[in-house]
TrEMBL record:
One Gene Ontology term of the molecular function aspect: DNA binding
InterPro entries: AN1-like_Znf, AN1_A20_ZnFinger, Znf_A20, Znf_AN1
Every A20-type domain range: 12-46
Domain of life: Eukaryota
Keywords, in A-Z order: Metal-binding, Zinc, Zinc-finger
SUPFAM superfamilies to which the protein is assigned, alphabetical: AN1-like Zinc finger, Glucocorticoid receptor-like (DNA-binding domain)
PANTHER family for this protein: AN1-TYPE ZINC FINGER PROTEIN, ZINC FINGER A20 AND AN1 DOMAIN-CONTAINING STRESS-ASSOCIATED PROTEIN 2
Taxonomic source organism: Anisodus tanguticus
Role description: May be involved in environmental stress response.
PROSITE patterns: ZF_A20, ZF_AN1
Residues of the AN1-type domain: 107-153
Identification of the protein by name: Zinc finger A20 and AN1 domain-containing stress-associated protein 8
Amino acid sequence: MESSKETGCQAPEGPILCINNCGFFGSATTMNKCSKCHKDMILKQEQTKFAATSIENIVNGNSSSNDKEPIVTGAINVQLGSAELKVISTEASSDLSSGQSSEVKPKEGPTRCTTCRKRVGLTGFNCKCGNLFCAAHRYSDEHDCPYDYKNAGRDAIAKANPVVVAEKLNKI
Protein backbone atom coordinates (compact mmCIF):
# COMPACT_ATOMS: atom_id res chain seq x y z
CA MET A 1 0.00 0.00 0.00
CA GLU A 2 2.87 2.33 0.78
CA SER A 3 4.54 1.60 -2.58
CA SER A 4 1.47 2.85 -4.47
CA LYS A 5 1.63 6.14 -2.59
CA GLU A 6 5.29 6.52 -3.47
CA THR A 7 4.84 5.86 -7.20
CA GLY A 8 1.56 7.73 -7.54
CA CYS A 9 -0.20 4.79 -9.22
CA GLN A 10 -3.65 3.89 -8.09
CA ALA A 11 -5.05 0.40 -8.23
CA PRO A 12 -8.58 0.13 -9.60
CA GLU A 13 -11.18 -0.17 -6.87
CA GLY A 14 -13.09 -2.91 -8.63
CA PRO A 15 -13.83 -4.41 -12.02
CA ILE A 16 -15.31 -1.98 -14.55
CA LEU A 17 -18.18 -3.20 -16.73
CA CYS A 18 -18.19 -2.44 -20.45
CA ILE A 19 -19.93 0.87 -21.24
CA ASN A 20 -21.94 -0.87 -23.99
CA ASN A 21 -23.63 -3.02 -21.32
CA CYS A 22 -22.65 -6.24 -23.07
CA GLY A 23 -21.91 -7.97 -19.74
CA PHE A 24 -18.14 -8.21 -20.07
CA PHE A 25 -15.51 -6.25 -18.22
CA GLY A 26 -13.79 -3.27 -19.76
CA SER A 27 -10.48 -1.60 -19.09
CA ALA A 28 -9.14 1.93 -19.15
CA THR A 29 -6.85 1.10 -22.09
CA THR A 30 -9.86 0.23 -24.25
CA MET A 31 -11.89 3.27 -23.11
CA ASN A 32 -13.88 1.21 -20.56
CA LYS A 33 -15.05 -1.21 -23.28
CA CYS A 34 -14.52 -4.93 -23.55
CA SER A 35 -12.11 -6.14 -26.22
CA LYS A 36 -14.89 -7.14 -28.63
CA CYS A 37 -16.71 -3.79 -28.42
CA HIS A 38 -13.37 -1.96 -28.79
CA LYS A 39 -12.48 -3.95 -31.93
CA ASP A 40 -15.95 -3.29 -33.38
CA MET A 41 -15.54 0.45 -32.74
CA ILE A 42 -12.13 0.49 -34.45
CA LEU A 43 -13.52 -1.46 -37.42
CA LYS A 44 -16.39 1.03 -37.83
CA GLN A 45 -13.94 3.94 -37.72
CA GLU A 46 -11.77 2.35 -40.43
CA GLN A 47 -14.80 1.65 -42.61
CA THR A 48 -16.03 5.23 -42.34
CA LYS A 49 -12.56 6.55 -43.20
CA PHE A 50 -12.39 4.24 -46.22
CA ALA A 51 -15.88 5.23 -47.35
CA ALA A 52 -15.03 8.92 -46.99
CA THR A 53 -11.84 8.59 -49.02
CA SER A 54 -13.53 6.53 -51.73
CA ILE A 55 -16.37 9.06 -52.01
CA GLU A 56 -13.81 11.85 -52.16
CA ASN A 57 -11.96 10.00 -54.95
CA ILE A 58 -15.17 9.52 -56.90
CA VAL A 59 -16.13 13.17 -56.52
CA ASN A 60 -12.67 14.39 -57.50
CA GLY A 61 -12.36 11.93 -60.37
CA ASN A 62 -9.27 10.18 -59.04
CA SER A 63 -8.88 6.56 -60.11
CA SER A 64 -6.53 5.63 -57.27
CA SER A 65 -6.14 6.72 -53.68
CA ASN A 66 -2.40 7.45 -54.16
CA ASP A 67 -3.06 10.77 -55.93
CA LYS A 68 -2.68 13.75 -53.62
CA GLU A 69 -4.17 16.47 -55.83
CA PRO A 70 -7.67 16.33 -57.33
CA ILE A 71 -7.79 16.14 -61.11
CA VAL A 72 -10.50 18.14 -62.83
CA THR A 73 -11.23 16.84 -66.34
CA GLY A 74 -14.02 19.20 -67.27
CA ALA A 75 -15.57 22.56 -66.53
CA ILE A 76 -18.46 23.04 -64.12
CA ASN A 77 -21.16 25.60 -64.92
CA VAL A 78 -23.28 26.79 -61.99
CA GLN A 79 -26.41 28.87 -62.45
CA LEU A 80 -27.30 31.09 -59.53
CA GLY A 81 -31.06 30.59 -59.78
CA SER A 82 -31.00 26.76 -59.76
CA ALA A 83 -29.30 24.11 -57.71
CA GLU A 84 -28.31 22.00 -60.72
CA LEU A 85 -24.71 21.39 -61.65
CA LYS A 86 -23.85 20.84 -65.27
CA VAL A 87 -20.66 18.89 -65.88
CA ILE A 88 -19.27 19.20 -69.37
CA SER A 89 -16.40 16.87 -70.06
CA THR A 90 -13.79 18.09 -72.53
CA GLU A 91 -12.79 14.52 -73.41
CA ALA A 92 -16.32 13.51 -74.39
CA SER A 93 -16.77 16.55 -76.61
CA SER A 94 -13.50 15.86 -78.45
CA ASP A 95 -14.57 12.25 -79.08
CA LEU A 96 -17.94 13.30 -80.45
CA SER A 97 -16.45 15.99 -82.67
CA SER A 98 -14.02 13.58 -84.30
CA GLY A 99 -16.84 11.13 -85.10
CA GLN A 100 -15.40 8.25 -83.09
CA SER A 101 -17.56 6.57 -80.50
CA SER A 102 -16.10 5.38 -77.23
CA GLU A 103 -15.00 1.75 -77.13
CA VAL A 104 -18.05 -0.29 -76.17
CA LYS A 105 -17.91 -4.04 -76.57
CA PRO A 106 -20.88 -5.46 -78.40
CA LYS A 107 -22.82 -8.12 -76.53
CA GLU A 108 -21.18 -11.44 -77.22
CA GLY A 109 -23.35 -14.39 -78.07
CA PRO A 110 -23.20 -17.74 -76.32
CA THR A 111 -19.87 -19.54 -76.51
CA ARG A 112 -20.02 -22.47 -78.90
CA CYS A 113 -17.77 -25.34 -79.96
CA THR A 114 -15.87 -24.48 -83.14
CA THR A 115 -16.43 -27.96 -84.63
CA CYS A 116 -20.04 -28.88 -83.81
CA ARG A 117 -21.43 -25.43 -82.77
CA LYS A 118 -22.74 -26.90 -79.50
CA ARG A 119 -23.18 -24.41 -76.64
CA VAL A 120 -20.38 -24.89 -74.12
CA GLY A 121 -20.75 -21.94 -71.72
CA LEU A 122 -18.24 -22.14 -68.89
CA THR A 123 -17.30 -25.76 -69.61
CA GLY A 124 -15.56 -25.00 -72.91
CA PHE A 125 -11.95 -25.98 -73.51
CA ASN A 126 -9.50 -23.54 -75.09
CA CYS A 127 -7.03 -25.21 -77.40
CA LYS A 128 -3.51 -24.00 -78.19
CA CYS A 129 -4.69 -23.30 -81.71
CA GLY A 130 -6.90 -20.55 -80.23
CA ASN A 131 -10.33 -22.11 -80.68
CA LEU A 132 -12.96 -23.19 -78.15
CA PHE A 133 -14.25 -26.76 -78.08
CA CYS A 134 -16.77 -28.95 -76.25
CA ALA A 135 -15.77 -32.03 -74.23
CA ALA A 136 -16.09 -34.31 -77.28
CA HIS A 137 -13.80 -32.21 -79.51
CA ARG A 138 -11.28 -30.93 -76.95
CA TYR A 139 -8.45 -33.26 -78.01
CA SER A 140 -6.24 -32.26 -80.94
CA ASP A 141 -6.97 -35.39 -82.97
CA GLU A 142 -10.75 -34.82 -82.67
CA HIS A 143 -10.74 -31.36 -84.25
CA ASP A 144 -7.75 -31.58 -86.63
CA CYS A 145 -5.68 -29.08 -84.70
CA PRO A 146 -3.09 -27.19 -86.79
CA TYR A 147 -0.87 -26.59 -83.73
CA ASP A 148 2.41 -28.52 -83.94
CA TYR A 149 2.77 -30.21 -80.56
CA LYS A 150 5.91 -32.17 -81.52
CA ASN A 151 8.00 -29.12 -82.36
CA ALA A 152 6.64 -27.25 -79.33
CA GLY A 153 7.69 -30.17 -77.11
CA ARG A 154 11.13 -30.34 -78.71
CA ASP A 155 11.65 -26.61 -78.19
CA ALA A 156 10.57 -26.87 -74.55
CA ILE A 157 12.99 -29.73 -73.90
CA ALA A 158 15.81 -27.90 -75.66
CA LYS A 159 15.25 -24.80 -73.52
CA ALA A 160 15.00 -26.82 -70.30
CA ASN A 161 18.11 -28.91 -70.99
CA PRO A 162 20.88 -26.83 -72.54
CA VAL A 163 23.93 -28.65 -73.86
CA VAL A 164 26.73 -28.61 -71.32
CA VAL A 165 30.22 -28.94 -72.78
CA ALA A 166 33.26 -28.97 -70.52
CA GLU A 167 36.50 -27.26 -71.52
CA LYS A 168 39.22 -29.50 -72.81
CA LEU A 169 41.99 -30.30 -70.38
CA ASN A 170 45.56 -29.76 -71.38
CA LYS A 171 47.71 -32.88 -71.39
CA ILE A 172 50.50 -32.87 -68.91
